[in-house]
Design a protein that fits this description.
This protein has 186 residues and is of the alpha+beta class. The protein folds into 2 domains: 84 residues, ACT domain (Alpha-Beta Plaits, 2-Layer Sandwich); 75 residues, ACT-like. Chain A, domain 2 (Alpha-Beta Plaits, 2-Layer Sandwich), CATH 3.30.70.1150. It has 6 helices and 9 strands. Strand 2 and strand 3 form a beta hairpin. The radius of gyration is 22 Å and the shape is elongated.
Length: 186
């Protein structure tokens, strides 16, 4: 039998079965994970992702409740709906995890990222870099005769757009904090 033939009752899929392929579109999801603030918790959470081959697009972590010793880990990851559900379930089962929220699935959220962007250039390139920084509401936090360091906050898409416009003007380096996110409303 050829590899494309399907035996009766088999669970393998044909290359022509597009229905299953279309329902398995990867999506980006932002997860907020409240954890015990203790050594090794971040490594365990990240180990869950790496051990199962899940990618992390963005990761931020900080203590949010000093007296309760709790931290918030914000993870942006990609996967099919089934994979995202699996990630949530596996995170929820971990002992130091108090809560897992899929901000993408729960409704509108506010997402921001901080970036420092170093641009090197002279003459017209410097003038254009300053003009674009004003449009994007980026602040100059360091300046020399040959470079600027801009600070900006915004959505990841806004920071990507700013970096792309700075690339031909002399983008030298960029540092990003990762996404911080909260659900909107109550």
């Amino acid at each position: 039998m050829s590899a494309l033939n399907i035996k009766k009752g088999s669970t393998s899929h044909s290359a022509y079965d597009l229905r299953s392929a279309l329902s398995e579109v990867e999506e980006s999801h932002t997860l907020a994970v409240i954890v015990e603030n203790e050594p090794g918790v971040l490594a365990r959470v990240i180990g869950l992702f790496s051990g199962r081959g899940y990618n992390i697009d963005s990761l931020t972590v900080a203590e949010v409740d000093h007296t309760g010793h709790r931290s918030r880990i914000t993870v942006v990851t990609r996967g099919t709906p089934a994979v995202i559900d699996q990630i949530e379930a596996q995170l929820s089962r971990m002992v130091p995890v108090y809560a897992v929220h899929d901000l993408t699935a729960e409704g509108p959220s506010v997402q921001r990222e901080l970036a420092l962007v170093k641009v090197q250039g002279r003459g017209e390139h410097r003038i254009e870099a300053l003009r674009l920084a004003e449009i994007f509401r980026a602040n100059v936090v360091d300046s020399t005769l040959e470079s600027f360091v801009f600070e900006m906050t915004g959505t990841p898409d806004k920071i990507d757009a700013f970096a792309e416009l700075m690339r031909p003007l002399g983008l030298a380096e960029i540092a990003r904090t990762g996404v911080a996110a909260l659900s909107r409303g109550i």
